[in-house]
Amino acid sequence: MFQAKTAFVRRSSLFLTLLVPVSAAFAKTELSMSHQLEGQHAKELQQLVNRFNENNKDVEVQLVKRAPNGKPTVLNLATRADLAKYLNNPEAYVSVEKLLADNKVKFNPKAIAEPLRNAVTVNNQVQALPVAFTTPVLFWNKDIFKAAGLDPNKGPKTWEEMQDLSGKIDAARATNCEYTTSWPVWVHIDNVSAWAGAQTVTPDGKLAFNTLIQVRHLARLTSWYKTEYFTSFGRNNEADAHFVNGECAMITTNSELIAELQASKKFDFGVGSLPVIDDNAGAPFNTLAAGAAIWVGQGHSKDDYKAAAKFLEYTLTPQTQLTIARQGGFLPLTPAAQAGAQSKLLRDDLQAQDLGLANVMKPADSSATVGWISLNPQLRQIVDEEMEAVFMGKKSAKSALDAAVTRGQAVYKPLPTVAKTGKARRK
Q1: Percent of the chain residues topping a pLDDT of 90
Q2: Torsion angle defined by CA atoms of residues 414, 419, 422 and 424, in that order, rounded to the nearest 10 degrees
Q3: What pTM was computed for the model?
Q4: What is the mean pLDDT of residues 36-56?
Q5: 50 HSE (CA, 13 A, CB side)
Q6: 169-to-239, 275, 342 alpha-carbon distances in Å
Q7: How is residue 410 annotated by DSSP?
Q8: Which H, E and C letters describe 68-111, residue by residue?
């Protein structure tokens, strides 16, 4: 009897010994990814994660809502509004470039489009993966253009042309909203300045977005506001919904809006570059790109980082990149994805992304320094306040921008990104 029991214990022990490695082989690494997305973008992120989980049985990424001031999880998706905070706190995160190298994932930082890469580079290392970057473009409603007797396939190339078209749309009573904009500071200070080759800060870090170019542009917007050619809906992206609903003839906003426009199918629309200032020598130069990026938190295990590297590798595949571009309207990161975006099959679907990428890839004006004014929340609020004071007739464009520069200097902190290169302005 004792022998029989002994034999049974031995057989059981052998079975358990054989079982352990089998179980270990199928053990999953659970990986948290924090985010603050809402609505459609949150759904798209969940779909991306689901596809990864389905194809990687040894890793399971779980999305969690990020608490304010919460400790970074392994993966962290930070939006454009948080970009400055993350860049100014690099010690809390593991460089994506280093993480991929440590886990033997082939990664060439220079394969990422330079302006996108530069926006998340600190100390010559790519700190985060810029997966959902956008840049401002112009959209117009072709149906409203037709109703006003305009060529629906030709949007304005200059701000002067936009004024002329707005007058014709107004005269035809085709709409009560000729032109609107989302993100006024991002579009009309950061990007209009970069596009025109006008600096927003001096090389020694002094705010300087009160030059003649910015003053004249704000004065022009104000004259449109008074004649009701320009309608302001808010400081963020409130104008997007009004344009998608078919209320407005033209909008300057981020290229990602194309995904929502394509999904709504309410009207035909055109896509063009930001208008340029007619008498500005050498322009256009480049627009700026910013958006959501994936950051990897410090203080996690080797297994977590191995799994994180696997997820980032998946995110960088051409198929995933094209899916992100098509579903979210974001700029493709890599040459393979960019080639796919320019293919005959996808050209119409990705026209805003393709155009946006071409614009951010234009050489910048080497004589101008761009300070990313809108990425500093406190500074953006100040500039919004001063711009609105001009629209309401309380200040002149010059006095408002002078005040914004003076008030803003106390809260401005340059982002620790690599210096940009560019071409000198033609005289």
Answers
A1: 63
A2: 70
A3: 0.88
A4: 91
A5: 6
A6: 19, 18, 33
A7: T
A8: CCCCCCCEEEECHHHHHHHHCCHHHEECHHHHHHHCCCCCCHHH
Q: Model confidence over 248-269: pLDDT tens digits?
A: 999 999 999 999 999 999 999 9
Chain length of the chain: 427
Decide: 49 and 32 in contact? Cβ < 8 Å. Answer: no
Among 91, 33, 34, residue whose Cα is nearest residue 59 = 33
Q: Which CATH architecture has domain 136-287+365-420?
A: 3-Layer(aba) Sandwich (3.40)
Residues near 261 by beta carbon (within 8 Å), at least 6 away in sequence? 139, 244, 269
The residue type at 260: E
CATH superfamily of 28-134+289-316: Periplasmic binding protein-like II (3.40.190.10)
Residue 300 region, left (φ>0) first, then alpha (ψ -120 to 50), else beta? beta
In angstroms, how far is the first alpha carbon of the chain from the final one? 103
**Cα distance between residue 352 and residue 246, in whole Å:** 18
